[in-house]
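Section handout 9: paired folding examples.
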Amino acid sequence: MSVGIHPFFSIATKRFNFCSFKRVGIAVNSYSLPLSLSGSHNRTPSPSTMGDEKLGLKSSESDKYSKELDVAVRVVQMACSLCQRVQESLVSKNNDQVKSKDDDSPVTIADWSVQATVSWVLSECFGRESVSIIAEEDVNTLSRADAVGLLESVVKTVNECLAEAPKFGLKGPDRVLETSEVLEAISRCNSTGSHPGRHWVLDPVDGTLGFVRGDQYAIALAMIEDGEVLLGVLGCPNYPMNKEWLKYHHRDFLVMSKSSPSTSESWNKGCVIYAKRGCGKAWMQPLVHKSEKLVWPNSAREIRVSTIDDPALATFCEPVERANSSHSFTAGLAHSVGLRKQPLRVYSMVKYAAIARGDAEIFMKFARAGYKEKIWDHAAGVLIIQEAGGVVTDAGGRPLDFSKGIFLEGLDRGIIACSGATLLEKIVRAVDASWDSSNL
């Protein structure tokens, strides 16, 4: 049965701003971040505050969740560096660092290593007892007798990454972490998010197929409080800062960087995109290269969604994998609303980054029957698009509900992200018109 357009569209066509929804007011906790910045005294503004001022945020805005955002961006930068090293190894040698999870999707040492690293940093910064983390990986595979070599690789990778923490403005451990400590950090991310309060949501490597194929993938970290996404950070190691480089595959970057005398900065490969609820802005900064240190805000620049609202000129993204998304249905929708360009099929939440940056205008995903969307696949990207001026709803025009735990419960048919309400309304109407004849 066709589902009518949600009355929220009466507001959306004027000014679609999710920040008008209920916000939760929370005082900033009085903890001190382990930032390894010399000369820091009480009379000196914190690195987070200084960074927010440079980004043009008012003092009232910069105070709220600024410490959490600061740590989140820094640890995602660390995770990107970790993933780049592992991916280069996978692309150059077809080794056994890829395993299969219970759902048959590939998982590499990067997944576990990133999860352990992020878990350890968040726990050290905000207190182990007060940090709740929802993440994708568990330790079952790593704990098997036949995974000794894999576990050793994960422990080694985590310690190498944490040793570089000062480069990213964070304090690393005083000693090398033991195997049991790494396993504990991974298994600590076992929250279900089913109760009110604050939860960090992590997808350590979103788009693992893209990762192992040397293509696009993302590290996604969000903070949710009482069901509302407050912070979102996307690390996109293979997504170039400059749009013109999008036509090149990651492997082409490797070839060009070896044959060209250009500096690493001129290639601008890889970025971290982030936003904070209620600011009405999203930001992008380049990845920190091997010889650099992160100096906040690391040449960050504001990003905005595209102003295109003509379907004939719009670009739409869809998942690469057919297993959990119907390409035929999205193709039919694209035709019915007048989309004429070929779809941009991209692995991972990089699709959300593409819309937030204005590289594409539409993302549609309609899962096959029985597939349930997980919050770690969407939380960070949804907030970033919203703060960059775009809109994200289910196929009925309703906001996504992040308050029900691991899954996006109550999702109406699919997910639609757009650069503006005009395109969104046309797609929702097209879904209503064609849904009954689909075989999803």
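Moving on to protein 2 of 2.
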Amino acid sequence: MVLLLVVGQVATEADSGSQEQTTVTVPPTSPNPTEPLPFDETTVERFFTAVKSQLQCGYPMFGVPSLVPLKLSYTLKTSFDLLSLKKISVVASNITVHGLNEFSWDPSRTRFTRTAATVPLSFPNVTAFAHTSLNGANGTSFVELRNVSVRLDAQYEEKDDLLYVTELSGSILLEDAKVKIASLFPKSAKLSKIWNKAIGKSLPILVELFNGGKLKIEYLSRLLSGAKFYAMNTINNALNTHNLNFDRLVESMLKFADGTSDSLQCEESAAMNGNELVGWQRA
């Protein structure tokens, strides 16, 4: 309507014999917030390369420790029936996870809009070690996950010129797993080996059932819910602290990918030692 009024005014002035030239500027159309945005694969690859190094430093300013390796301080206590053959009480502590910085992403299945993002990641090998106690028998157990496919989904919105994450979700697929639960059957090493192999082979199926909501694991659901809350709170705290909306976030990510002087990257010397929360170049 405004454009029609402007055009009408120009036509009236022309008819009145005015010799003045009038330029009409049409403001650009606002992008559709749900329309997929183009992205440069090389730039995104540089961003993820920087992320892999950053995982060794973490983000101490936001309460995020080094994730290479990831060391979990809590103690897991649970129990289960092994096919009604044996009641097992499990205590796991000193959990350490390796391999979170070794991943690739699939550009063909990646999608960005101004309100949502989907990023698929692939981890060739993720290994978790823990000190375990099964019915009082102590030992070191480990789980090796091979070819883990993770799809991360995020939804966000802008309010008062700030960006907020409103939802985090995703799914996990597992190709193969190797399990060694120490002292599963202390009196029979052969039986322990058989059951460890069976548990490892069943893990991909169990993960798929859990993704589809067909398998309910109360403890795991609570753990994932807590991790989701922590992640959203940490991300929104960072966005708010640095006064970022969508456009300023994209600009910040480009700086991070290029390692500019005002990006939030840790020093290379600090990246070499993931156990120390020191060595920050920039605030």
